[in-house]
Amino acid sequence: MNMTSASKKTVYGDYLQLGKLLECQEPYSGSEQKPAHDEMLFIIVHQVYELWFKQIIHDLDSVLDLMAPNPMSEKGLCTVVARLNRIKEIIKLLIAKLDVLETMKPMDFLDFRHFLGTMSGFQSHQFRLLEIKLGLSSCDRVTPSKCPYAKDFTSIQQEKLNATETATSLFSKVQEWLERTPFLENGSFSFKLVYKEAVDSMLKHEKKRIESLTGLTEKEKKMQDLRLNDLSENYGKLANPEIYDQLLREGKRCLSYKSTLAAVFIESYSNEPILHMPHQFLHAALEVDRLLSLWRFRHALMVQKMIGTKGGTGGSLGYAYLIKTVEEYQIFSDFHDLSTLLIPRFLLPDLGSDVKRDLGFFYKTT
Amino acid sequence: MNMTSASKKTVYGDYLQLGKLLECQEPYSGSEQKPAHDEMLFIIVHQVYELWFKQIIHDLDSVLDLMAPNPMSEKGLCTVVARLNRIKEIIKLLIAKLDVLETMKPMDFLDFRHFLGTMSGFQSHQFRLLEIKLGLSSCDRVTPSKCPYAKDFTSIQQEKLNATETATSLFSKVQEWLERTPFLENGSFSFKLVYKEAVDSMLKHEKKRIESLTGLTEKEKKMQDLRLNDLSENYGKLANPEIYDQLLREGKRCLSYKSTLAAVFIESYSNEPILHMPHQFLHAALEVDRLLSLWRFRHALMVQKMIGTKGGTGGSLGYAYLIKTVEEYQIFSDFHDLSTLLIPRFLLPDLGSDVKRDLGFFYKTT
Amino acid sequence: MNMTSASKKTVYGDYLQLGKLLECQEPYSGSEQKPAHDEMLFIIVHQVYELWFKQIIHDLDSVLDLMAPNPMSEKGLCTVVARLNRIKEIIKLLIAKLDVLETMKPMDFLDFRHFLGTMSGFQSHQFRLLEIKLGLSSCDRVTPSKCPYAKDFTSIQQEKLNATETATSLFSKVQEWLERTPFLENGSFSFKLVYKEAVDSMLKHEKKRIESLTGLTEKEKKMQDLRLNDLSENYGKLANPEIYDQLLREGKRCLSYKSTLAAVFIESYSNEPILHMPHQFLHAALEVDRLLSLWRFRHALMVQKMIGTKGGTGGSLGYAYLIKTVEEYQIFSDFHDLSTLLIPRFLLPDLGSDVKRDLGFFYKTT
Amino acid sequence: MNMTSASKKTVYGDYLQLGKLLECQEPYSGSEQKPAHDEMLFIIVHQVYELWFKQIIHDLDSVLDLMAPNPMSEKGLCTVVARLNRIKEIIKLLIAKLDVLETMKPMDFLDFRHFLGTMSGFQSHQFRLLEIKLGLSSCDRVTPSKCPYAKDFTSIQQEKLNATETATSLFSKVQEWLERTPFLENGSFSFKLVYKEAVDSMLKHEKKRIESLTGLTEKEKKMQDLRLNDLSENYGKLANPEIYDQLLREGKRCLSYKSTLAAVFIESYSNEPILHMPHQFLHAALEVDRLLSLWRFRHALMVQKMIGTKGGTGGSLGYAYLIKTVEEYQIFSDFHDLSTLLIPRFLLPDLGSDVKRDLGFFYKTT
Lengths: 366, 366, 366, 366
Description:
4 copies of one chain form a homotetramer.
Chain A: H1 12-15, H2 18-21, H3 39-66, H4 74-101, H5 106-110, H6 125-134, H7 149-152, H8 155-166, H9 170-179, E1 185-186, E2 189-190, H10 191-212, H11 218-239, H12 241-249, H13 257-268, H14 273-306, H15 319-328, H16 333-336, H17 353-364
Antiparallel strand pairs in A: 1-2
C-alpha cells in the first residue's frame, strides 16, 4: 500500500522464503539413479495439498474462534460465511488439481512407486486435524483407520490430534448456534406449532384427495395409501419431538431436535432479510461438507486408476476404504437431505408483522 | 510398488519435507501486531504458484532435452506432447486459483498491503525463466520491464537468466523441428506447389463466381472485388515465399517461411496417422501459449480489482502493463491465426499413395 | 412434490417439448451431400448459448423488476443478489463451453464454413438485448457495430431493441440505488467528511514521512515527491466533488459522484451487518460484468483460432473487433478499479454507535 | 468460408431455428398462476442436457461406424480418439452445469415441484440410448429400473431401445478391437510369455528378499508371506489364462482374456509410437466411463440436496438408486483398476528391434 512504506526493502523471494521452499523437493528415485521424471510432479502435487490444508485450517480456526462468543455477533457471522466460502473455493481447487496429477500415467507411477515404501496420504497430519476440526471424531472413522494414530504420527502430533478431538468442532458449533436461534418461539409465534399445523393440514388435504379419486383399482388404491403413510411418517419425524428423539437414540439422526427444527425454520424463511445470513452460513457449512465428499470420491477414482483396487502395501487403505469414506465421513449427514422435511411456501404462514418487527430489533441491539 | 520394499521405513511427512515446507509462511503484518488474517492466503497462493512454476520448468526442460536430437525420435515426440499437455493442465489450475485469491476483498488486502512495500510478482525469478524458456526474449518485453533484471534479481539469478536467454527456447525448437518436416517435398510431391495451385484455383473460381453475378450495384461490385483482393493478398503471403520473407523482414511475421508452410501442411493433413502426433505437438505448444495469455488476462483482471489501475509503488507495473502483455507476450503469435492460411480439404489433393507409403517407411527406420 | 399430484400424467419428454427441440438441428452442409460431421456440434453449441441467454434475460428482467420500487425492500435485495449470482454461474458455464467447441479443429470448421455464408453471432438478438439490459447503449458500441440493427434484425426485433434501450438498465438501476444509500449522511455522521479527513491525514502523514527521510539522492527525492503527488491526485478525485464532476464531464468517469461515494462507503464498512447485502449486491453486479469480459476475451481467442484475424466475410467483425470489446463493453468500468479510492480500515473511523443504532431502524420499518 | 458464398442470404436465427427453439419453454406452474420464477431454469437446464445428449449420440454413432471395419484403419482411430475426447469435454460440462442448477434452493424447487407430477429424468430416451450404446445392457441395470421401458417410453421409442440393445456397443467394439491387436504374438515375440516370465521373476525375487530378512517377529513374517501370496494371486489372474477364464465364468471379470492381455500390452509399451494412438484410444474410452461415473455421483448429490433421500413419487428412483448406479453402471469396470496387473518397466523386456520393425510395416500397408 502506498500509505506507509515498509522501512526495509522488501523482496518477493525473501517474503515467500523461496530459497527454502524450493529446496524441499527431493525425489527418492534419485537416490540411486536418474530420478523418475514424474516423481517431481508427485511431490509437488502433495506439497501443494499440504499448503492448502494449512490455509483451510487457518480459516477454520478463525471460524471456530468467531463462533465462540454466545451469542455470536452478526458481524462475526458475515466473516464466518466469507471464510467458509473460501474453504469451498479451495476444495474446488483440490478437486481440479487431480486433473494435473492424472497427467501421470500408471506406468509412469510404477517407475518410482517402489521407492515410496509404506508411505500413505493417510499419514497427513494436517488432513487428520482438518477432519477432526470439522467434526469427524476418531470413533466415527471407518475400520481399519479407527485408531491408527499411534502408529502413523509422532507423539507431539498425536497429542495435538487428541487435544483437537476434545476441543469444539464445526459440527458442534453449528448445532449450538442453531439451538440458540432466537426466532423459533417469539411472542405468540411458535415455529414448532406452525410446522405441526402445516403438516397436519397437508396430510388431511392429501387424504381427502385420495378419497375423492374414483375408478382406482385395488392395487392403485393401496399405492396411494402407502404414499400417504410415507408422507405421514417422514414429516412426523420433525412434527413429533418424541419420535425424533427416538431416532436420535437409535443413531439414525445426529443433530438435536431443536437444531434440526431451527435449520428447517431458517430454510423456510430464508428470504427474510434477518435470516439471510443464517441461511448463507448453513449453506456454506453444508457445501464445505459436500465438496469434501466430492473430493473424496474424485480422489478415490484417481487412486483406483493409479494403484488399482488392490490397495496399498498395508493391504487396507486403498480404493475400497476410500470409496467407503465418501458417504460415511460426511459431517452434516442429517442436513444433506433436509429438503425431505421442508414444506412448500404456500403451506406455510407468513411470518406475522410482530415477528418481523421483533426480528428488526435484533439488529438494533447489536 | 509392492515388488521391492524400500529398505528404510518411509514417512509421508519426511518425504514431503513438511517440517520445513510448513514453516515458510511468516506474515509480515505479524511483526508488530496480530497478523492480518488474509495475509496467510496471500502467501500461500504465491508459494503454490512458485511450486507450480518449478514443475512447469521441470517439464519444459525435459521437453527441450527431448527435442535436442536431430531428428527427434517419434518416441520422444509422444513424451513431449504428454508433458506439454501437463503444462496446459497446470496453467488451467493457475487460472482457477485466482478464484481462491479473489475470496480476499480489496479492503482485506489493504489491511496488510503496506507491509509489502515495493515487492512485486515481477520479481519472480522462476516465472521469468519460464517466459524465456518458452521463447520470450528480454528485447520482446514491454517497457518498463525491458531490462529490469539487474535491479530485481541477485547476480546469481541474473546470470541464470542470461544463460537461459542464450540457450534454445521452445520457440526456436518448434521452428527448427518444423523446418525439418520430411514430407513437404517427397518424390514428385511438393506441398509448396500443391498449396500454390489450390490457392490459384480457389481465386480463379471465386473470380468467375463474381463475374457471373448479375444485378449488382456498383457498390456491391466493388465490395466483391475488395473481397477477392483480400483473399488473394492473404493467401498470397504463403503462396509466394518472397512476399513472406518481406513480411518477415518487416517484423510482421516471426517464424520462417519453411516452418509456416510445414505447419500448414501438418494441419491440412492432420488426419493422416503419420501426422497425428506432429499435429498434437503443434496444438499442445499453441495451447500452452494461449492458456498463458488467458492466465495473463485473468491475472490482470484480478490486479485491477485488488490494486486498481494506479499500479504498484513503482507506478508502472500495474494493470496497464499487465493487460498489454496479454497479447504482446504470445510466443507463437504467427500461428494463433494459422487458420487464415488454411485451405478447405475439398480443395486440397489427397496425399498420393506414394507419399503415404513413403511416410510409412519413416516409422520403420526408427 | 408429493403434496398435490398433478391431475394428468406428466411425461418428461412432453414437458421439455423434446419432439420439437430435437428437431431444430439441421446442418446446412447436409443440403447437397453427407453433412460435415462437426456442423452438428456447431449448431448445438450455439443453440445452447441461446437457451442460456434466454435464462440470463429471464433472471435479469426479474432483477430489474425487483429494483423498480423506491426504496427497494431488503427482501428484494436478497433475491436480486441470488439471481445475479446465478447469472455469474451461467457465464462461467458459457466460458467452459468453449472447451467443447474447440474440440473442433479449424480444418473441420472449413468443411462446412462456406455453407454459413455471411451469418454471424453478431446477429444474436438475445445477446444484443442482454447487453442493452446490462447497460450497454448503442452509442457505446465500437464501430462497425454502432447502429447495425436495421440490417441484421427484423423490424419486430429492431423495435424490441429500441424499446429496451429506452427502458432502465442494470447500470442505471445500480446508480440510482447507490445514490439512495441512506447512511452516507446520518445525524452528525457524514461519510463525505470522514473520507476527506482520512485522505488529508494520510497525505499529511506521508508528507512528514518523506521529509524525515535522510540521505536521499536528488532523484530519489523527486520520486518520493512524485508519489505523494500521485496519491494526492488519485484520492483527490473523490475527496473533491468538483474535481469528480469535471472528470464526469470529460467522460473519464461514468457514474455520478454520489453513487461512487456510496460504493466506497459500502466497501469500506462491508463487515457491518447492515451493509453486507449491499456489498454482496455490488460485488455480484461487478462480477457479472467481469465474467462477461472474460467470456469476451476467451471467445475472441477461440475466433482467432477458428477463423484467424482476417475476420468474417464482412471483413469487420472478427478478432480485432472482438478483442476491442473486451474492455470497452464493460458496464461498470468506473468500479473495476474502485480499490484505488479505498482507504485502509486503520485510517477510517469506526461507525459510531449512533449510526449503528440508526442503521438498525432501517430494518424495523421495512 | 470466403471461397464459395452461399447462394441465399443466411441468417443466424434461421440457421439455429431460434423461433422454434425458444418457444419450447413453457413452465407448468404458469398454467394457473404467475409461473414460479425458477421453473424456467429447471426447464432450460434439462433442455440443454438433451441437446448435449444428442451431440454425444452423434459422436458415439460415428465412433461405432468408424470401428465397424475389420481392421479399423489408423486414420479412423485418430478420428475415434478425437470424438471420444469431445464426449469427455461434454461430460465435464454436464458436471459443471450442476453448479448452475444448484443456484435454485430446495424451497424454490418446492414452489413448482408439485406441478411436475410423476415425471422423472429417468424418462430421458436419449440418455437411455446413450447408456446402451456405451454398453450398459438392460440386464445390467439396477432394480427398480431393470425393465421399465414399456412404462416410460412410447412404443416407437421402445423399439429403438430394443434395436440399440441388439446392435454393437462401444464395450463390445473395444473388446473386439483389443482382441485383434496384431502385436501380441509377433514372430518369436509372445507377450503372454513375456508377461508370465516377468511375473515369475518378480515373485522369485520377492521371495528371496523376504527370506533374507532377519530379526522378524513371527507376526511380521506372516505378514510378509501374506503379501507374497496376494502378489502371486493378483498377477496370477493374467499370467494363467485358465484362472482368468474361471473368473470370467464367475462374473468377476467382464472382458475376455485376450482383450485384457492386449490392454496390459498397450499400456506397458504405450511410449512406442505405434502404440501411442491405441493407448490414447483406450484412455479416452476409460475416461468417458469415469467421467460419467463422476457425473452420476455429482448428480446424486444434487438430487439428495433438492429432493432428499425420500425419492420420487414412485418412491424408488431417488438418491439411493442413483448412488448405487455410480459404480454399477461403469462399462469398463475391468479396466479401471488395470494398474493392478501392470508390471514396472524395469521388469519388462525392451520390445526387440524385430518387433519394432514389423510394427513399422503396419503403417506401410494401411
